[in-house]
Amino acid sequence: MQINIVQAIGGGQITLTCEKTESLASIKERVAQQKRIPARSVILVFQGKQLDESETLKSAGIEDLDKLYMITRTTGGMVR
Hints:
Elements: E1 2-7, E2 13-17, H1 24-35, E3 42-46, E4 49-50, E5 67-72
């Protein structure tokens, strides 16, 4: 199956080929590698809900050609 990952800010898109049994943690890791960012900063959202990385694509109800949104956490602080 294929899924599309759309970056919530900036709108870039990644298409991944995967199995329904693949974990969302694995998907998150693959996206992070392609974007060259830490996996811990990636949040995946489907149908308005943040996905639990312990689930599989199938258990989360994700089907072929569905679209997930990627939000990246940023660290902030005071600039001096």
